[in-house]
Sequence to fold (107 residues):
Amino acid sequence: MAFEEAAEYALSEEEHDSSTISVWPPTDKYTSDLTRREREVVRLIAQGLTNRQISTELSISERTAANHVAKILRKLGLRSRAQIAARAGAIVDAAEGTAPGMAASDG
Fold:
């Protein structure tokens, strides 16, 4: 679903068919769209860091950090940083091809 379609869908007042709502966890198709840097940002969001703190940690501008967060939200169909943080383990595990809850080096 394109961003414009998703925005229109979210703002419409019609009742929606729940069978079209995606179920977590996302398939590898979605998580494989995340870049290495975006996965780093996911980990930092999960640690509770703000965009300013992320920018300091990764030596990037605060605006670039905000752009990464926006791209992650869009790619995964999420609406908040809290949703990213809540699903961070599954996002990173799926993207790296490890079992849920296992770090890549654990396997």
